[in-house]
Design a protein that fits this description.
Blueprint (H helix, E strand, L loop, with lengths): L7 H18 L7 H19 L14 H7 L2 E14 L5 E12 L9 E7 L1 E3 L2 E3 L11 E6 L17 E4 L5 E2 L5 E5 L17 E4 L17 H13 L2
Helix pairs in contact: 1-2
C-alpha cells in the first residue's frame, strides 16, 4: 500500500518541472538538453537529501476500500493491546512489537491464536526515534484490526495503514483513525482517490458533539456489534 515511498511527491514534482524546463529552453539555439537536465537533477537530489533527515519519513499511502480491508486482510480480529516492546536490531533499525489479546477473530483465517504479535517499523528506543508517521495501537487499546500480514516484513502490518485501524470505545462504538465515530459503511463503495486520507472508501464518520455524548443510541452511530456484522457479511459475499 506504500506508493513510491516517502519520496513520491518530490519525484512527481520533479517530473513535471523537468518537462516544463525542456519545453521552455528548447526554444533557444544551442540548448543542450542532456547537460542541463543533469545539472538540475544534481541540485534537486542535493536539496532533497539535506532537507529530510533519515530518521523522519513522510509516507504516501494508497486509498483502499472497506471491501478490500475485509477481503484482502490475512486476519481481521477484535483485540486488545496487552504489551508493547521497542527494540533495535544490529543494523540500527528500530521496531515496535505490539502484542494483542485476540478477543474474537472475524475472518476465519485458520490462525488459531489467543495472542498475536505484530511488528511495526519505527518507534522510540533509548531516546532515539525512527518515525514513519505510523499511529501505533496503544497499551490497553481495544480495536478492530485488519492485518495485511502477520509475518514480520512490512513497515506497517495493518492493511492500508491507518485505514485498517479502528478503535472500540468504552461504550461499544467504533472510531476511525481520524478520531470520529463511524456512522455508516458502504461495502460496495469504490476507490475515490489514489491517495489515502486515512479513511477507507465506504467508511463514513462523524464527530461527536458534546451535547450528543449522552444520547449516542439516538444518533445513528454504529456499534461494535453492528460493525462486526458488516465485516462478517462482506466476507461471506466473497
Amino acid at each position: 500500500m506504500l506508493v513510491e515511498g516517502w519520496i513520491a511527491p518530490f519525484i512527481k514534482t520533479w517530473l513535471l518541472t523537468k518537462t516544463r524546463i525542456c519545453k521552455y529552453l528548447g526554444k533557444y539555439n544551442g540548448f543542450n538538453k542532456e547537460l542541463t537536465l543533469n545539472k538540475i537533477t544534481r541540485y534537486f537530489v542535493f536539496f532533497l537529501i539535506i532537507g529530510f533527515p533519515v530518521a523522519n519519513y513522510a509516507t504516501v499511502i494508497a486509498q483502499t476500500t472497506f471491501s478490500n480491508l475485509a477481503k484482502k486482510s490475512e486476519i481481521v480480529f477484535d483485540g486488545e493491546v496487552i504489551n508493547i516492546e521497542v527494540a533495535k536490531n544490529t543494523q540500527g533499525r528500530i521496531y515496535t512489537y505490539i502484542t494483542f489479546e485476540v478477543i474474537e477473530e472475524l475472518s476465519n483465517s485458520g490462525i488459531d491464536e489467543e495472542e498475536i504479535t505484530l511488528r511495526f517499523t519505527g518507534g522510540t528506543y533509548n531516546e532515539e526515534s525512527l518515525d514513519f508517521g505510523i499511529e501505533y495501537p496503544k497499551l490497553g487499546e481495544r480495536g478492530i484490526y485488519f492485518v495485511e500480514k502477520i509475518e514480520f516484513g512490512l513497515i506497517n502490518p495493518l492493511l492500508g495503514w491507518e485505514q485498517g485501524h479502528f478503535k472500540i470505545t468504552n461504550d461499544n462504538f467504533v472510531k476511525a483513525s481520524n478520531g470520529e465515530y463511524v456512522i455508516s459503511v458502504n461495502a460496495d463503495a469504490v476507490q475515490t482517490s489514489s491517495i489515502s486520507s486515512g479513511i477507507a472508501a465506504g467508511v463514513l464518520t462523524k464527530p461527536l458533539q458534546a451535547k450528543q455524548a449522552e444520547s449516542l443510541q439516538n444518533n445513528s452511530y454504529i456499534t461494535i456489534f453492528e460493525f462486526k456484522e458488516i465485516i462478517i457479511q462482506e466476507l461471506s459475499n466473497d
